[in-house]
Amino acid sequence: MQRLLREVNETVVEVNRTLGPADGIDVLCECGDACGTFLTLAPDDYARVRSAEGQFCVLPGHEHADAHVVERHERWLLVAAGDPQPVP
Ligand SMILES: [Zn+2]
Predict the structure, then answer these.
(1) Ligand 1: centre distance to CA 1 (Å)
(2) Residue 79 near residue 69, CB atoms below 8 Å
(3) pTM of structure
(4) Cα(64) to centroid(ligand 1), Å
(5) Does residue 37 lie in a domain region?
(6) Do residues 62 and 69 lie in contact, with contact meaning Cβ atoms separated by under 8 Å?
(7) Each residue of 36-55: pLDDT tens digit?
(8) How many angstroms does the Cα of residue 58 sit away from the middle of ligand 1?
(9) What is the extent of the structural domain holding 26?
């Protein structure tokens, strides 16, 4: 489900681009519950999120109980699905 959302968001970002440069990118919450809620990421943050394998951006409060919160921001959270990777 979260991978599907990522694909949807790739399309959303393409649409955003065609509308011109923006200081924020609206993407769907990737909590996997099909909440359909948009959150706004800075372009740099979105580039970071999409390049991070197994990590997703969700609204605060939408993180799953077993999700590992990697970063906590005012308007969104970066979460890793499943078991967190051991830090070397
Ligand atoms: Zn959500």
Answers:
(1) 12
(2) yes
(3) 0.70
(4) 10
(5) yes
(6) no
(7) 999 999 988 988 998 988 89
(8) 6
(9) 2-80
